[in-house]
Amino acid sequence: MGWRMWLPLMVFALFLGLAAYQLTQPKDEFVESRMIGQSLPYFELPAATEDLPGVSSKDFADGKPRLLNIWASWCLPCIAEAPQLEALKEQGADIVGVAIRDDPADVAEFLARHGNPYSRIGRDDLSEVQLGIGSSGVPETFVIDGKGTITYQHIGDIRADDVPLLLEKLREAGR
Amino acid sequence: MRGLLALLLAAMAMPIVAQGNAPPAPYAYRQLDDPAKEAAAQELMETLRCLKCQSQSIADSDAPMAGDMRHQVRIRIAAGENPEDIRSWLMQRYGDYVSYAPVVSASTWPLYALPVVFLLIVGAILLRRFRRRA
Question: Is B78 found in the same domain as B109?
């Protein structure tokens, strides 16, 4: 017998250690899109507000890289994100919005209150574009290159320190 | 009196995080007219995972996004699409996460391999013990 007597205890300790380790790991709740590197699916969305045109997948094929921002006027983190989108716009980013399950009056009110960084906003009442590009929540921001290929996904609201990275990803997409 | 006040306050309470006032997608809560197609859609929806609520299927969830996913599933089934094609369409976008149907992949193969390994170990131990006794 000898050392083998301790074998079951050792296996048990191993499981205990594994469980303890997993408990200390932060929970990763993000579902990443598998569409990075793929083309945008075909879509055509009507305008979400009177003042801006709607969005079609063809708008992304003119050679200019853009940010595609999935948001909604009812989404609280989108309010926190608004100043960062404004900063991105000031530094030359063209931001296309897709408003999820939204109402034109609510969209107009949001833009009046929190600023309008968008060149276009499409109205996605059925989350079609959201499902089509593998986005699982609002807000999310995708970098789309000049040929309509998705090159990067940012999940959650954009914080001030995310702005340089997104600008860098836009530059990369423009190469 | 206090009960009445509580009732009044409860009636005035608003959800803290409303998900918009937009009506749900047409087929989020409406069944397909064809019972066979609705059954196929239901079977698929019960094995697709809600993206917003972690441990619920889209058939069980009241999250608006789950409603939009049910709408997608139902109109695609109604259009004659194969349920497994719809599943793979979603898995191309969200990976294994979105499906409750288990698949063997780079991260899940130990689940299938370990039981076999354990059985082999047990078999080897038993074999040795029986031989020793004989």
Answer: no
- Taking CA atoms, what residue in A is nearest to B22? A101
Those residues whose C-beta lies under 8 Å from the C-beta of residue B129, and which sit 6 or more positions away, are: none
Give the whole-number percent of chain B exceeding pLDDT 90. Answer: 68
In terms of domains, do B65 and B96 share one?
A: yes
Per residue in A52-67, pLDDT tens? Answer: 999 999 999 999 999 9
pTM of the model: 0.82
- Find out whether the peptide bond into A65 is cis, omega within 30 degrees of 0: no
- ipTM of the modeled complex: 0.84
Of chain B, the end-to-end C-alpha distance in Å amounts to: 85
B14, part of any domain: no
Q: Which residues of B touch A29 (CB under 8 A)?
A: 54
Closest approach of B66 to chain A, Cα-based (Å) = 10
Residue B123 φ/ψ, nearest 5 degrees: -60, -45
How distant, in Å, are the alpha carbons of A34, A138, B46 from that of A116?
Answer: 30, 17, 40
User: What DSSP designation does A100 have?
Assistant: E
Q: Which residue has the tokens 């034109």?
A: A104
Domain of B113 in residue numbering reads as: 104-134
Alpha-carbon span B96 to B90, nearest angstrom: 9
Give the strand pairing for A140-144 and A150-155.
antiparallel
Residue B134 within a domain:
yes
